[in-house]
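Memo to structure team: turn this sequence into structure tokens by end of day. - J.P.
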Amino acid sequence: MKKLFIACLFIVSLLVACSTSNQQTSNPVPALPDSLAGTFLDHRIDMEERLDMVINQLSLEEKCAQLMHDAPGIERLGIKPYNWWNEALHGVARMGRATIFPQPIGMASTFDPMLIEDVATAISDEGRAKFNIAQKNGNYLQYAGLTYWSPNVNIFRDPRWGRGMETWGEDPFLSGTLGGAFVKGIQGYDPTYLKAAACAKHYAVHNGPEGLRHSFNAYSSPKDLYETYLPAFKMLVTQYDVEAVMCAYNRTLDVPCCGSTLLLTEILRNNWGFTGHVMSDCGALANFHGLHQYTNDATASSAEAIKHNVSLNCGSTYQNLVETVQAGLISEADIDRNLRLLWRTRFKLGLFDPYGDNPYNHLGPEVVNSKQNVELARKAAQKSVVLLKNNGVLPLNKDIKHLFAIGPLAADVDVMLGNYNGMSNNVISVIEGIAGAVSLGTRFEYRHGFLLTEENKNPIGWAIGEARGAEACIAVVGINTLLEGEEGEAIGSAHKSDRPDLQLPGKQLEYLKQIRKDQDKPLIVVVMGGSPIALEEVHKIADAVIMAWYPGEQGGNAIADIIFGDAIPTGKLPVTFPKSVNQLPPYEDYTMYGRTYKYMKDDPMYPFGFGLNYAEISYSNMSSQKTTYQFGEAITLTADISNGSDFDTEETVQLYVSALDADFPVPMYDLKGFKRETINAGGSTQVRFTIDTSELTNIDEKGEEQYVNGRYRFYIGSTLPSQRAIDLGAPEAGMLELKIEE
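Reply from structure team:
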């Protein structure tokens, strides 16, 4: 009887399993209703033919309305409303719950394209899932769509720019490589459908001042334009197939960017072969007549933009498009051309196809802020942290007897978020991360201690004395998005979100000095913020300095992981930290001489690419197959890397090149490659870079690529090769001089 019961139970279980399996896998694509066959909703028809079919059914008024960012539905054709304005800078933004990853300037510190691609894949998974849910709920509002206006690949040319935190740093190659990895993850890998659409912004030469962005005329020499301001955009268009490009508010070389024949026609379309859609930044077309005085009115502004194939207007200027056509300034064929460019994206997203035909429609709430994505956010934050100084106090022992945390940002969760962020119930502050990591037998205390931007109002303050009495003190200082950001966002900034003074605000430095005074107990300073801060005095008084950026929802855990050695610091600075603004050229000067690691001759506080590691890394035996090459040949460079410590680690290896015999100005150093290598404790490995000599062209004063015959120096190391980096504790880079000729 027992055997019979077990046999019956087995059969029932098998039937249930089969039934469940069928429910999970048998999801046939619904047959296309006969009423849709042969229409633009028939996904079996070629996309270009479908575009012809739908455009031919629209009135002029309907066509023009579809070129606005808040496009209305067309009920008679079964077309739903669609709002093109959506954000995903470091997570699905402004649309409720989503995983919050580190701000892009922090993710740039990872120098890790594979990680960035994984992050962007998680973002687009969550975005598609949230879109699917919103569609079922009939939510067609702003931020509920799939066209993400990210990444921002403007060059962080000047650390005073409040919006630099949205970028991938000051180097075009790094920005293009990491921005391109982000595009790949956002857009997905299906041969037919986009998971979401990415957008390269803000094209071009849009790098502050933030308060003048609507009226400023950015003058760039041809050399700077093609050497610095355009390469990242070019990479995203030509190598990574970014779906959209956003033209900027400002003028470049006297012409509004959204009406520039040079930028939009000659370079973007003709030279780079871009076939996607171009959109205006929000309100940029109104600037044509309102602030640039380039046109007389909105009708003329609309005509200029349409002629330059700006297919989408974020703003209200295109409300005049019908009148613009009727006035003869543009034709209906011009409208059709732009609508085709724009709607091709909607077709690629599968917005007019049967539900079951789209491979991304299965994504649901289970992927949003999932355990896997939260873990990825923590990993990204760990890798973004940059260790700027360590005299041996880190990592701290978790069994420390008495630990004290202090500072205006230690318990702040807002500083984890950055800008253009989503919302999460997993946001971990620094003190929460430390409390979760330190031993239960440790006396761990926290006091706010001092204010962010001003001197304490109360002359009596106990916290400084308490901090001095602890076995070690962790002080969390810096800035937040009340002090830097986009134009009107940083409500605590008197400079429209820019930072003309790079110093720590308020009296933070003075309070740090009080903690340090007449005692030598470890003082670890954690610096929060999205841009370089003048840290020369902090470096002198602290035992360890950590740059943590705006590290996302798991930032507190990641910082604690670094402090206590559960993770090894491997982040590298994607932007130069000057000692003060005195080392910088005038902010409104767009000339690159004196800027960034390529042309800055003064020793900075911290060089580009700098970041310490708990492991003792050394480089040796840099070599190549031969000493003379012809342009067009490939050069393979190798170097040995050793780890003389007890820590297993990753090392962020960087390749720099210097052309020594150029007869026109060239960068002192030029980043040409980077990779992360795993090196076990006490072990070594060989790193290999292969670079085609055709990639070693330099841009002359006319903006033209030139081969420079003669000597080239190649460096392989952990940071920009400089004596300053060595003085700060970086290992000396390997160096090799080769000759290259045409």
